[in-house]
Amino acid sequence: MAYRTLTRATSALFLMFLLSACRKSSGGSTADPVTPPQTDPSTLKGTLVFQSNFEAGCGIIPFGTQNDRITGRDNSLSSLNDWDALENTLLSTRPYFNYNGGDSTIRRARLTQDPLNPSNRVLHYRLQDTWLDGGIYRGRVQYEFYNIRSGFKDYYQSVRMLLPVAEFEALRKYPASIDWLTIVEIWNNITWSQTVPNRYRLTLGIGKLVPTESDLCFILDAQDCQLFADGSQKYTTIWSRQAPSVKIPVGKWFTMEYWFKEGNRDNGRFLLSITPEGGVRQTVFDVTHFTHNSGDAAPDGVTHFNPMKMYTSKTLVDYLHQQGLSLNIYWDDFRLWAK
Q1: Range of the domain at 303
Q2: Concatenated DSSP letters of 305-324
Q3: Tell me, what CATH number does 173's domain have?
Q4: Is residue 215 part of a domain?
Q5: What pLDDT is stored for residue 39 in this prediction?
Q6: Which one of 79, 90, 147, 233 has the lowest number of neighbouring Cβ atoms within 10 Å?
Q7: Percent share of the chain, pLDDT over 90
Q8: Is 281 exposed, middle or buried (0-12, 13-18, 19+ CB in 10 A)?
């Protein structure tokens, strides 16, 4: 065989190439990671700090002139279920739905009937159009769980999600790849304040890896951020992952859980799993890498994150509009634990 005729020098060069390739893939690889053994969530969760099923007792009311907030206490639960109490317990400011523009005719967060179970009440996000936001046309519905009094260094979130069939099947045929449909965003530290150093974000989204018809998959990336004096930003990706081998459930409820542990390249951790209704739990990502700014020598925990987010581009929303569709996500049974 030709391989056997290589000289020692050529063989050495070939070996160096292989080693170099392995080193490159271990750092910021975007390849689908090998699925690790299942991790028992009960060993990761810590102490329950908030919960809601979005049932009777809760309501959504205006917050300021352009945003909304959840108010009230979820009557289906007996404790840690008061949205108004968050401001005086976990947070130093009131959490709310931020739209960054638009009006209720083109974007909204509402409590509504579960489309698959009329006796259940859920949180519904809808985008029917985009608007100019910071010089870019985009669409956003996000819950801002901001100004956590004691930054979370180790926390766990669980929420049920329903992705409606019509729009998410249509997105399989979207005539480009999809790298911007955010569903969770974690800021450690925030990237929009001149007084806050060591800026970082971790973004979990739904993506499509090719421009042709294809299944959707979860995508994940972690970025350092540089904030300039004029307010502009430069994001540098530290690591990213994609999970094309894990099928995203469409048209049925599934539970999405993630564990965030603040740490560096060797001890930071992000673990994501999903459990389709009636199915088994699947690990989507289990990443050990930076979960804070790569230059931060003294990280102090997450104080801002978006646990339920729907944020995307004008082109994606326009594509759905051309099909007579809007973008919708339903949420239920939100739980949050921290250590």
Answers
A1: 30-328
A2: EESSEEEEEHHHHHHHHHTT
A3: 2.60.120
A4: yes
A5: 78
A6: 79
A7: 87
A8: middle
Confidence of residue 42 (pLDDT cuts 50, 70, 90): confident
- Structural tokens at position 250: 């469409």
DSSP H helices, the chain, are: 8-27, 165-171, 314-322
Count of domains for the chain = 1
Q: Is residue 241 part of a domain?
A: yes
Q: Report if residue 2 sits inside a domain.
A: no
Q: Distance between CA atoms of 54 and 51, rounded to whole angstroms? A: 9
Region of residue 215 (left: phi > 0; alpha: psi -120 to 50; beta: else): beta
Quickly count helices (H) and strands (E) in the chain: 3, 19
What would the mean pLDDT of 77-91 be, rounded to a whole number? 97
Interacting residues of 10 by C-beta distance below 8 A, sequence separation 6+ = none
Measured between alpha carbons, how far is 332 from 46 in angstroms, rounded to an integer? Answer: 21
> Does 54 fall in a domain?
yes
pLDDT at position 298, please? 97
